[in-house]
Amino acid sequence: MNAAKQERLPQLDIFRALAILGVLHVHSSSFAAGELALQSPYYYWLNWINIFFKFGTPSFIFLSSFVLFYNYYGRPVNRSLIGSFYRRRLKFILLPYLLASAAYYGLTLYVNGILTQHPAKSITSFLAALFTGSAYAHLYFVFISIQFYLLFPLLLKLLQSSQFWVRWAFPLGLALQWGFIFWNKYQLHIVEKGSLSISYLAYYMLGAYMAIRFEQMKLWLMRPWRELEVRYKVRTVLLTVMWLAAAFIHVQLWYRARHYGIWTDSLWYELLWNIHTMLSALMLLYTTFVIYRKAPAAITAWLTRLGELSFAVYLIHPLLLAVYRRFGQSIPTDSLVYVLYVYGGLFAALAGSWIIVQFAFRRIRISWVALGNVPRSLVNGSVAGGSGRMSAGKEISKS
Fold first, then answer.
1. Per residue in 223-275, pLDDT tens?
2. Positive or negative: CA dihedral 301, 302, 305, 310
3. Most buried residue, 50, 181, 199, 310, by most Cβ within 10 Å?
4. Residue 44: which residues within 8 A CB-CB, separation 6 or more?
5. What average pLDDT does this structure show over 291-295?
6. Is the pLDDT of residue 395 over 70?
7. At what angle do helices 201-212 and 56-72 cross, to 10 degrees?
8. How much helix, strand and coil, in percent to the nearest 5, is found in the chain?
9. 84 near 68, Cβ under 8 Å?
10. Any domain includes 282
11. Which contacts qualify for 174-181: CB closer than 8 Å, 24 or more apart?
12. What is the mean pLDDT of the chain?
């Protein structure tokens, strides 16, 4: 087995940037796309933002698996590897998750005026939220990533054992994911199934397959369009058409339900979300390599830095959105100004998070405790916790 160190793929920072922009679009439009602005003449656009950009978190999940298997597939699974793997994830993923969960949960209790009431009950409730990824709405993603990390050495060993498992990784992941979806719908009835990693198993397995087969994928990802073989051009066009079609149908399905109250079986929403976001992950991967190859240096640099900061931005942006939404509540939802207000939340969360995170990484020695691994480009002699290597914090933020 080839244990040589894999070449670094700087393109993946751009992928992370596109994924976090997707997350910010969804979160900034969540209130408006609910019942708040249903009667707005701009509601179709608000709903479109909220549904089209739902590829953010699934793309992170896909990339998290891609990075892990890309880095570890050629290495033997032994005690040293497993020990190093879990030490870094405890330090750069679990610790920030614990602190973020406590901070958001405590802040929620404070805002609701019950922080000091029934402390024993609050602690019990917090522990339940901690072990279900529900201390705050966005933390489920980190929670399911931790679940995947627990399984990763076993999956790595399995896929290393035979090319049979590599070939069938994605179909089996898809079958198990949908088997759970049907089981939950008709028997289990778990409300927070999105906090279970099996709900995203197909994304993990697709990321694993793409990473293991990356040498073949290079023929598609790294060559300019004019140098691509006809078969790759045809597949790229088909992927683009299928992605746009799935996204449009997904948007329309939710618009019909939200705006007109015409709902259909929940499996259709699940299916369209699954197709739309899975094709989005592949489309983002291709687009990422195109941007890295062709975009102006300033754009590439901006996206790269955003990608490097994406995990920390993911952790803190809901706090800034919550503060932002305390202002402008008197804006009529049927005005164009309200649409601009929604987008203002996106920019406020992005810019504010970026400034806070970059300042913390540059100036606060122990910032990694709360924000994860310090990006390679910000590592210097005065910063602790940054290894300059692709560690757990980078993997999630790049996920």
1. 999 999 999 999 999 999 999 999 999 999 999 999 999 999 999 999 999 99
2. negative
3. 310
4. 255, 259
5. 97
6. no
7. 40
8. 80, 0, 20
9. no
10. yes
11. 174/201, 174/202, 174/205, 176/201, 177/201, 177/202, 177/274, 178/202, 181/267, 181/270
12. 92
Tell me which residue range forms the domain holding 15.
11-397
Average pLDDT over every residue of 289-299: 97
- Residue 326 lies inside a defined structural domain of this protein: yes
Q: Considering the domain boundaries, does residue 6 fall inside one?
A: no
Q: Are the beta carbons of 271 and 182 closer than 8 angstroms?
A: no
Distance CA 40, CA 211 (A): 44
Q: What is the pTM of this model?
A: 0.93
DSSP 225: G
Q: Which amino acid is at 379?
A: V
Pairwise CA distance, residues 47 & 38, whole Å: 9
Closest CA to 55 of 202, 247, 240: 247
How many domains, in total, are found in the chain?
Answer: 1
Predicted pLDDT of residue 380: 60
Q: Is 143 exposed, middle or buried (0-12, 13-18, 19+ CB in 10 A)?
A: buried
∠ Cα 166 167 173 (to 5°): 75
pLDDT in tens, 266-283: 999 999 999 999 999 999
Report residue 377's pLDDT band, with 50, 70 and 90 as the boundaries.
confident
Nearest in space to 303 (alpha carbons), one of 293, 314, 292, 313: 292
Residues 396 and 199: their CA atoms lie apart, in Å, by 17
The number of beta carbons lying within 10 Å of the beta carbon of residue 386 is: 20
Q: How far apart are the first and last CA of the chain?
A: 26
Asked if residue 80 is part of any domain, the answer here is yes
Alpha-carbon distances of 84 from 69, 147, 191, 275, 300, rounded to whole Å: 15, 17, 35, 35, 32
